[in-house]
Amino acid sequence: MRKKWLTIVLCTLLQATFSFSLYHDSEDRKSLMERPKSHCFSCASFVYLPLWSQLMHHYYPPKNFTDRCWQPDSGIGLVPCSSACFTLVERIDGEEYVSEQHGVIRGCMDRLLLFGLDDDVRNILSAYENQRVCRHTDRKLLRLFPLSGQTDVVTFCSCNGDFCNEHDMLRELSSSNSFQIHSVLLLVATWILILF
User: Fold this and answer.
1) Number of structural domains, the chain?
2) Whole domain around residue 135: which residue ranges?
3) Which one of 25, 58, 157, 165 has the lowest number of neighbouring Cβ atoms within 10 Å?
4) Residues facing 107 on adjacent strands
5) What are phi and psi of 109, to 5 degrees?
6) For 137-171, what is each residue's pLDDT tens digit?
7) Any signal peptide, and if so, which residues (predicted)?
């Protein structure tokens, strides 16, 4: 009698647990389905193409490789996205490049790294609604493949909404470079004044 009663209790608990699990799985799926999808530009500047045999083991492929990726237009590929859009600008060193090279990649945050970003990093990068936020950050934090021995700093912009990663990154890069040049000139002028 006691075994029969114990079996009934265990079966009831298992059935309740199973029903609870199914309910929450369907709710999670429903919330994912209801999440609005936006579209992000997806491309990489041409400088990445010779490196793609190394990068393909780490990154999702962009829709196309083109230098129009710096200033995207309607001919650039698009991807549907349920998370934030991103734009990545980084320095690229290599034997075939005589001068300093920079590359840009655009896409959907969930389709950047094959093995995904850490949840806390992705949440921080996706936290801003209806605005584009750019940060200079360490590539190791984002688990990006190292393409420069000179610096680990990359510019990473994220935004939410249709085609929000369309910002002209050539202008951003030149203003960043001019800011660095002005900073160096100011530092040199300060040293000259101190010495004399």
Assistant:
1) 1
2) 38-180
3) 25
4) 86
5) -55, -40
6) 999 988 899 888 888 999 999 999 899 999 999 88
7) 1-21
